[in-house]
Design goal:
homooctamer, 246 residues, alpha/beta, four-stranded mixed β-sheet
Chain lengths: 246, 246, 246, 246, 246, 246, 246, 246
Amino acid sequence: MESVAKGERPVDAAMRELADLPFRDLGFARVDHHRHLRRGLPEVVLGEGKTAAQIAGIIGELLTGSGGDGGPVLATRVDAAKAAEVERLVPAVRYDAVARCLVAGERPFVDRGRGPVVVVCAGTSDIPVAEEAALTATLFGSRVDRIHDVGVAGLHRLLAVRERLEAATVIVVVAGMEGALPSVISGLVGRPVVAVPTSVGYGASFGGVAALLAMLNACSSGITVVNIDNGFGAGFAAALINRKDD
Amino acid sequence: MESVAKGERPVDAAMRELADLPFRDLGFARVDHHRHLRRGLPEVVLGEGKTAAQIAGIIGELLTGSGGDGGPVLATRVDAAKAAEVERLVPAVRYDAVARCLVAGERPFVDRGRGPVVVVCAGTSDIPVAEEAALTATLFGSRVDRIHDVGVAGLHRLLAVRERLEAATVIVVVAGMEGALPSVISGLVGRPVVAVPTSVGYGASFGGVAALLAMLNACSSGITVVNIDNGFGAGFAAALINRKDD
Amino acid sequence: MESVAKGERPVDAAMRELADLPFRDLGFARVDHHRHLRRGLPEVVLGEGKTAAQIAGIIGELLTGSGGDGGPVLATRVDAAKAAEVERLVPAVRYDAVARCLVAGERPFVDRGRGPVVVVCAGTSDIPVAEEAALTATLFGSRVDRIHDVGVAGLHRLLAVRERLEAATVIVVVAGMEGALPSVISGLVGRPVVAVPTSVGYGASFGGVAALLAMLNACSSGITVVNIDNGFGAGFAAALINRKDD
Amino acid sequence: MESVAKGERPVDAAMRELADLPFRDLGFARVDHHRHLRRGLPEVVLGEGKTAAQIAGIIGELLTGSGGDGGPVLATRVDAAKAAEVERLVPAVRYDAVARCLVAGERPFVDRGRGPVVVVCAGTSDIPVAEEAALTATLFGSRVDRIHDVGVAGLHRLLAVRERLEAATVIVVVAGMEGALPSVISGLVGRPVVAVPTSVGYGASFGGVAALLAMLNACSSGITVVNIDNGFGAGFAAALINRKDD
Amino acid sequence: MESVAKGERPVDAAMRELADLPFRDLGFARVDHHRHLRRGLPEVVLGEGKTAAQIAGIIGELLTGSGGDGGPVLATRVDAAKAAEVERLVPAVRYDAVARCLVAGERPFVDRGRGPVVVVCAGTSDIPVAEEAALTATLFGSRVDRIHDVGVAGLHRLLAVRERLEAATVIVVVAGMEGALPSVISGLVGRPVVAVPTSVGYGASFGGVAALLAMLNACSSGITVVNIDNGFGAGFAAALINRKDD
Amino acid sequence: MESVAKGERPVDAAMRELADLPFRDLGFARVDHHRHLRRGLPEVVLGEGKTAAQIAGIIGELLTGSGGDGGPVLATRVDAAKAAEVERLVPAVRYDAVARCLVAGERPFVDRGRGPVVVVCAGTSDIPVAEEAALTATLFGSRVDRIHDVGVAGLHRLLAVRERLEAATVIVVVAGMEGALPSVISGLVGRPVVAVPTSVGYGASFGGVAALLAMLNACSSGITVVNIDNGFGAGFAAALINRKDD
Amino acid sequence: MESVAKGERPVDAAMRELADLPFRDLGFARVDHHRHLRRGLPEVVLGEGKTAAQIAGIIGELLTGSGGDGGPVLATRVDAAKAAEVERLVPAVRYDAVARCLVAGERPFVDRGRGPVVVVCAGTSDIPVAEEAALTATLFGSRVDRIHDVGVAGLHRLLAVRERLEAATVIVVVAGMEGALPSVISGLVGRPVVAVPTSVGYGASFGGVAALLAMLNACSSGITVVNIDNGFGAGFAAALINRKDD
Amino acid sequence: MESVAKGERPVDAAMRELADLPFRDLGFARVDHHRHLRRGLPEVVLGEGKTAAQIAGIIGELLTGSGGDGGPVLATRVDAAKAAEVERLVPAVRYDAVARCLVAGERPFVDRGRGPVVVVCAGTSDIPVAEEAALTATLFGSRVDRIHDVGVAGLHRLLAVRERLEAATVIVVVAGMEGALPSVISGLVGRPVVAVPTSVGYGASFGGVAALLAMLNACSSGITVVNIDNGFGAGFAAALINRKDD
């Protein structure tokens, strides 16, 4: 191997070999049986922009294909109609209609976290995104404490849950409209906050841009942000942050 | 209580107690029976982004739940189909199809204002937003004088209503397209103007952005602005400005 | 006059006559000696985009020109260099370096308001805009109570001034970055809030756009918004809202 | 009348009288029977954002209401379904399905122009907007010469029609995508060009913004621009420019 | 020539010949001695983005180069420093410091228009752009009537000049901030309006975008728009529209 | 011909003749029978924004009209419903449901390229755009090698295909979301990369803008970019780049 | 305390007391001597938008004012000129010219983290932001490992540091231009990534927006994002995530 | 090596070795002595955002450092002041003031291309970007033919150079303002066009965005686009496309 590092052509040769890893080509998607090992975490399929047949095909391969390890698999952003069709094709899946996610090959929960992940949402309309985050964090080994409907217009509601917020290792805050909730929560408790802007709002909310910008410009420190409506990303990041050190 | 203020932990303790206020958790929304008292004004539910079942549940709780005080309740941005479903679940509601609002537990009008709120709109297509403002201001205790279809392209129509404009304590001006009406009205009469841009228009109106920007840059003074299509916000602010001093 | 209303040409004739109002043409600006009467308020000159000579010329005409009434005059958005030059040309002016405003012909304060206007700002960098608002409201006949540096990241600071906030007839809230302060203040006290986004911030604050959008999308009710950094507009609107009924 | 000009109140009084013009209030729209006289041109109703019943009501009033003069009336941006409903309510209308316009009370064409208006469009998909312009210009008294499908990718097609372009008093150029056609045409012939960007395109055309910006930044001189897809505005402006001097 | 049109290759050949027109290559700019003839109008140089040496070189070539015809030449968007340097290199030029333009080879004014072009501006800060338009229209053969400082916040000023507006063949309206003036003027008088948004304003004026959008969305008809601050383009288009028919 | 170049009028005369080229007017589209010859490539119809009847009419004319040469013809951006209707009207077409394209008059493949065009896509949802590119490149005479689902999150998959990438004359890289794939591929292999951003994503992907901007700002050299979702444009450009020198 | 929770007024009373916390008013800033305790972390002053005198005043108060605890204090976004002036006023500060930060009252480093924070930057121009992050993380108790200049255009450089990346508890990735580095790093190693877009770039990088959008849309999971150029925010969040559990 | 591919850990081990490539760490930049070999092309340094000392350091290392191969090196986007300082530190460099580039270690030109690269620019102000492209293409082994100042407003100038355009292997088209030139050129000649939008323009050109969007939406086929003002990127891509097949 030492000779490899000395010139350019040998590097190429080595790289070509290295790439010969065990993944299987479904035609429309390279299903990666090792990503699981490499990241230490389950497989995730982004349902949006894929047909039900494609989702079912990928889930099936991951569950029972050659090299498939039986799961778990999480498919996000799957609407009810598409979910029904996938369930018909792969009966082993379970659909969470609030979080709009499909889960397959679920296993008994093992707590891999240093503490609870608290998922807070500002309003009733933010719940689907919050639930996507909560479901994701759970599947990735974190206990989740859910707090709904505690917007900045009613601070006393927020103060009522302060103790639960302080118990968190990391807090996921989901809010649309003016997106001020992460600033206020981060100012109250010294925990890492993963902020999720939602597309809840109208007019100059521009599909969540107002909330996104507010969160990026938060005057409180310790806040990081994910994409609009990206409950999965927030739940995943929270679980990763929360993970017990190896 | 004096000892509370001396250190940090006791503050926390006090805050935890304070937060123990009477609100009831519906699972999807914390219905706040005291907001009414604290703000001196009825409850409002933003209908957009909520299911008919959620709207009905919140209205029901506010009307007849433990601690519910019978109303009034205003639900905004409810389309006709959703309204019909809510009416089926909570028969006591009334639907205003132009303003796209549901009202429940309405009470006899008591004038709490220093004078009339005038609601002006520039074109026929702006009427729904203007009516949302007018309905809101009425429910919050202001007499409303409505003036429709007096755009800047026909100044004589505007001059015809100048006396009514001058009689106002506050004027709500609703306009889409180039959003010039607030500037012209504010230049004519020395009253506070709450400007509401609407999404009426096409092409480079960008869903109301052109009108919003015009209103924010008005060369006349005394104009403040709310979100695009936010008739509720304008009606509420107008009623608050108009309120007789306590 | 009755015959005027019957046809189109006579209307034109009348309008032509009506337009013959006493204003004087300086070449670069029509100085309006009656605007003062018509609006019941002093003259204001937007300094930005005008040369020092132009500002001095307009102020001079308003103070001592034919039909000039001696003031008061307020010139906004005047930087220190330009102010020095105007002071050289029109010695009677006073420069407020924090608010970046020139005042001429100032008169003894007469309280024309129903109560105090409270001007709150979120951070030290927002002070110039807040002072522009405070100076304007004062000149237009409102007592002003100033509260500085009470951002949402430290809620206890805000709670410390709650009583002063509740004493206001109208509250001007000045904030940059994520612009969350108006939401929180409006949720605490039932007063009309005029929100002023500032260009304080960097990166994705986009020169105040983040704060502007947050304020337009505020989930608390009773908030109206003015242009970015428009302290004058907020102070003027607040004074107009606060004005004792005629 | 001379005394009117001396003070503020009399001006007001006069203005109030002047405003007493003959227009009739339909509840949802002030139908103006004199606009026709004052502008010397027919009535136009923007169909978008109005219900079929509203459009029919306004057309009916203009045709046969008290003070109605029988037309002509042009209603723009009316889709086929809405048009069918209006035709049922007001049988006297004619629908132009390509231009998506309703016409009522049409009169024999009288040429009021100094020459022809040429309407050019870049591609097949731009035809509806071009036809809206052509129909409008015709109704407002201009002869129209239509040239379709002569984009900048095939210059020889453009050169083939150069003589017709040079015969125009004013040229309306309709183009989507990169919106380059007005620059090229204006560079070829020394005629005023009214450029209409269309929403034809996808991706980074942003609903016509790319074409709009290109037209505003045209390096050829003599080009002015209207709103995206605003065939009516272009046809109207062209007819106004083309009008024989009174 | 007839044989040329029958196939593709010969077309190419002809085009190659045709292109052999008399223009001269300065290295940095192809100075076109025939554009003048082809468009029937003087030469224009956009000064912005060019060095003083480049501007002087182009002007010199147009005045006295082989094929140069002595002018006139108009160079726009030239700041005072650059103008001084050009004047040093080409003494025959004249600098208009308000319009920020250089003129060379000016000739006695010959009225080529059907009537006057009226140039209106909303505020003192808009004057430079208005003067660029007025100077351009004059050089291109139109009489110009200038009206300054008649914004929408003081309608009586506008009514005072209504007669002059009605005398125009075409009206150029220059306005920044909310850009409402073209709508109001176009609603008053039935003349073609060329609207020029300016970058006057701050905050959410976004360098003239607010005014630009307002003008594109004007509810009055007969308005066409040019680029922000493009006084030249508006003056040129107005002169072209105003030109006596050949 | 030499005399033509000496003055302006003769040029015009010549241009008028030149324009008399053989194209046929269908009313809605000028079908150009010579474009094929002039560019050396088949005809393309942009299906978006055209009705099925228009598409069928154009295809029919190109196949069998006077001067029609039988194809091939490619119609892009045709959805399944429209395709079915076109197939009913012009049975000779073939529909590629993945690429959403219609092909008519297809001919046996002749390799006109210097090597293979490799089309890479980042995710399953990007396949339709990749297939549009691949189909286009094939029809325009390039051999295509397809590589699917090799995003930057799994570099080993990319390394596995490095040899195929290096064999390409030009690489088309199709990616949505963060659009990072072209940078990484261009950094690996020294081939021209044509990058196609797709609208795959949600929230702050803004319909492909995020990917578009990433590709335009790529830190690797040798990348050029086409419009969002413009598989056709990328395939065409790749085939043109790949074409054997004449 | 129990009685407090029963009604609204007592809550107010309690809140008023609670707010009586020990902070001191400097006129321009409320210096908070307890924030330190409440968050368990040093004081931070955003230097941007503050004068040198203001910065010096705040630092002085925090170091030696009544209740001041001697530091440490970190002032960010301070340019060299301002820093020199602050150093003159408060000699005890140290200026980090690369990170553009002032530090005062620095204490011996105590490792409070679970492991190292790795700070990676893509290019030489990103170093100032990376250093701001590294300095912040260090001050807040994390060991930092710096890796510079490992962009996606040269993957082998990245692979060379893979082991150091895998040793991190959390990775801060700083990149401008297309912002692809976080995606690639997150795909390689299963650690939480805090991504910092920088304003490095030109043209369509739009001051860092391209990188920001790319990072928000990253296809790899486990990435969260802070504001453009917000090295402080990323360093703070990283230290908070890395903090040993209490 | 075969055993490497069988599991995950060995892959890591191999990758770690592979990464041990000969690059040298300057502290602020990893200078890569092998990139040259791997890409077969010279080193390029983006001067923008780097200090003169950094640029000089990198150039010096590449010329004479351990592993340095003497060049050539190209540093782009270097203004005159910075260039002078670099020249002082590394006397061997040459500065091209028009293209704003530094070159070091230049070698005799060897034509590696299949034909000439033609670089066309629309206006005098676009020349610096065009020269950056031309210099880059030359350094990377392509003969360059330069055509300046042939905008779409004067088509005859363009026709005059048609033959030179047709002789190109690839055409780089540089244009600001409305960016229409690539469409017109691509419609004339069947060659690959690399389009470079420039920031030349004002107002609604938005720093080159108008031209960028126009180019992305070009209706002619065969156009690909690079970043605004990215002459280097276009020249590099053109040389890569033009390169003789290996």
